[in-house]
Amino acid sequence: MPVWLRETLLPVLGVVVLGATLLGLLLFLIQDRLIFYPQPLDARAAEALQRAVARSEPFALDTDDGVRLQGWFIRGKGSAPWPLVIYFGGNAEEVSWLVPEWPRVSEWALLLVNYRGYGLSGGRPSEQAMYRDALALYDRVLRRTDVDGTRVVVFGRSLGTGVATYLAAQRSVAGVVLVSPYDSLVELGRGVYPFLPVGLLLRHRFDSAARAPQITAPLLAIVAAQDTLIRPERSRALVQAWGGPARLDVLSGVQHDDVHLHPAYWSTIVAFLRELPRP
């Protein structure tokens, strides 16, 4: 290489390396803000919402570290004990919107609890806190005599698919529904920042693919064909790693944020729940 070219390139490369290093440091420091987008809920709106749905009741859990999580338990239709769905939302999702939607799945009860910092729940979100809270919620709700503990399904959307997968790997579940799932946040991050050592920088890894092989419960994965945030190939990677029977439904004409508006969204979920084998 000519001396003049080397002398020209070295300063440029130095600037590029320095810029990438500073960007990596910035992303490491602010990654919580990039991953979690807590959404508030007005207390009066929560009360009005509960009154509007006859089968709903408030549900609260006080965690071991002194944080109160708040949400709703929606009773199933017909006589108890009811089969139960436990729902985990996305990274910018306050889950109360599902309260009036749940009558579509009338025979199943539903547990909706906002993550730490979301809705009326206290605290701050993190991967490990979400995992601990998911286990505590499962253990608490299964103490209810009106819940059929042999027919519990975990339901996660987007970021919440990582929480649902973790819970399915740690507790007995009859089935798993994942909407816009991913194999891990590390793989998602590598797609966005291919020039950075994402595996070294990321604290919240949500490595669902590492847990999937040990889960034998049936899986329904719903993917938006035009999803540009969690691309379908990341969802397929998780489905391929699943240890039990797994079904992937790709819905066309919808994206990440509006997949639930597809005409087949709820009917697909209801059909999956009804087809699950009874113990």
Q: Superfamily at the CATH H level? A: Alpha/Beta hydrolase fold, catalytic domain
The first-to-last residue Cα distance is: 72 Å
Shape: globular
As a percent range, the share of helical residues equals: 25-40%
Characterize the largest beta sheet: strand count, sense, and whether it forms a barrel: 8 strands, mixed
In N-to-C order, the SSE pattern is: HHEEEEHEHEHHHEHEH
- How many separate domains make up the residues? 1
List keywords for this structure.
279 residues; alpha/beta; Rossmann fold; 8-stranded mixed β-sheet; 9 helices; 8 strands; 19% strand
How does this model look, in words?
The chain is α/β, with parallel strands linked by helices. It has a single domain, classed as Rossmann fold, CATH 3.40.50. The protein has helices spanning 3-35, 43-52, 127-141, 159-170, 185-192, 198-201, 208-211, 232-241, 265-275; strands at 56-62, 68-74, 82-88, 109-113, 147-157, 175-179, 219-224, 246-251. The protein has an 8-stranded mixed beta sheet, sandwiched between helices. Helix 3 (127-141) packs across helix 4 (159-170). It starts with a helix and ends with a helix. The model is unreliable at 12-20 and 22-26 (pLDDT under 50).
